[in-house]
Amino acid sequence: MKQVAWWEWGLVATLVALGFFLRSRDLTLFKLSPDDGQYMNSARLQTLERSTDPAQWVEEDLTWFGVLADDWGHDTRTATTYQHSYLHQFLFRYGYRLGLSRIEALRMNSAVLGALTIGLLWWLYAWLFPDRRRVGLVAAAILSVLLVHVFQSRTGWGQIGAACFFLVSFAAGWKLLARTDERDTRSQVKLGLVLLVASVLGMGFQEMTSVLVVGLVLMALFAPWWREPRGPKLAEHALRSRVLRAVLVSAIPVGAYTLALRLFSDYAREKWFKLELYKDLSWWDLRVAVARKFFTIDHVYAQLSIPVLVLAAIGVRATWQRDRAWCRYCVGWVFASSVFLFFVFNDPTLLRVYLPAMLVVVLLAAEGLVFVAERVAEGVARGAAPRIAKALAACATVVLCAWLGARTWTTVFGDEDDALFEPGVYVGIPNSRNADRPWLEYLEDHRVSSELGVWPAKDPLFVAADAGFRARLFSFDEPQTTWTDYLLAVQNSMRLERRRVEDGGRYRLLVADASGRVGLYALQPAQ
How far apart are CA 352 and CA 163, in angstroms? Predict the structure, then answer.
């Protein structure tokens, strides 16, 4: 890596700081999802005690590891833990111990790693293409304020962490496959180890890393096609390439664990390897529904923004002219991972699983912006073109990021009727911010001090606990003498189970949350 000027280090640090501010400010604003509740319950945040004794932390964690091990592989009906993203769970236990609220602890992992990804985009170019670090700066600036990445970095889902470590794998993969000689054993070992560690850490945040590892293996296998037009034949490459072997060895931990999930985990087979979630739809109908959802509900084009997508298309052309191997590598990654997730993954409706591909889109958009600036500069003044290109790229980046930042700020912190508000990130659920305020205000206004029951979703338990109320998980299988006076319950479940007073049950709705999902119910006397 060439020597970096102090101002460039300062600019990168400023972008990371800006990104962290947007990703960490008021982390409890957006409503919890059922996944969030599952994560926190699996990490046992409702029973974890804060202390300053590291020995106690280790003892508690060892006990928790035993719980995870005993529960591993159980189907979703009997599982008491959330059987994935284990490193994510482990780290937010420590966030809670160090003073964050339960919800902040859960989401801070994503905020920190989301901000770190901004610096990694710049580092990628500083490491791989030192003479074009300005492309890395532009990419980092765009990502710092990009709506889809900012929003996902404010959630408890682990895909942001997986995408962060993907970027390390992406860079190391290029270094190994495109820059490392077949006889350079030392570099192969070092880069293979980087790939192994990055993939294992990525899987610690989300099992979608399995798909990314498959993508890297495919890129390694077909390296003669994308690396150089007249390289060795694929068969010869597959049999003799030591670089390919390094990639295959690095994929063993993730591959072995993925195979174990497929063969021995009822939980994984039910959650990821079957189509039970959409069993009423044919394979093709599901894909059509997913494509329609991405455009009509998620507004993927708006979350990434039209200017970024246009610049990415220009970036493909620019990289094709400058370095065709790099172009094939980038486009190959986007295509391979996205196609696999779309056509094979059990739940392709989750836009967040495509975050690694979106990082490459941002990278290509930066290439496109710098390319346009260079072409304009050449047309204005050939002698001073390099300086003019840098100035134009800087000005264009500032303008683009100002607009992207305004959209992001409005969408995350503004009002739904604001001109720049983008509802696509809220997955079609209205009133998703401060959604729990109605029932929290009811509990505060009525000075409720008795224990609250929570059923069947677990997320209200942690909202109530962070607000200072006593709460526990509830079951209607309990003796009625132990039923709680107040119950936080999913309204659809209460209706289907006929637990409401109007259905012959014993609980009367007092107030619902702003999104209409969870209601606060009061126990009525037995008839």
Answer: 10
The C-alpha atoms of residue 35 and residue 32 are separated, in whole angstroms, by 8
| pLDDT tens per residue across span 141-175 | 999 999 999 999 999 999 999 999 999 999 999 99
Alpha carbons 341 and 344: distance in angstroms, whole number: 6
The helix/strand/coil state of 520 is strand
pTM for the predicted model, two decimal places = 0.95
- Rounded to 5°, the CA angle 257-259-262 comes to 115
Q: Which residues contact 7 (CB under 8 A, 6 or more apart)?
A: none
471-473/452-455 β-pairing: parallel
Residues 431, 514 contacting (CB under 8 angstroms): yes
Structure tokens at 161: 């962490």
What is the dihedral angle through the alpha carbons of 319, 323, 324, 326, rounded to the nearest 10 degrees?
Answer: -80
Backbone angles phi, psi at 154, to 5 degrees: -100, 10
Rounded Cα–Cα distance for residues 516 and 435 (Å): 9
Sign of torsion, CA 86 89 92 94?
negative
Q: How far apart are CA 210 and CA 202, in angstroms?
A: 9
Angle (CA) 513-517-518 rounded to 5° is 60
State pLDDT tens for residues 195-229. Answer: 999 999 999 999 999 999 999 999 999 988 888 76
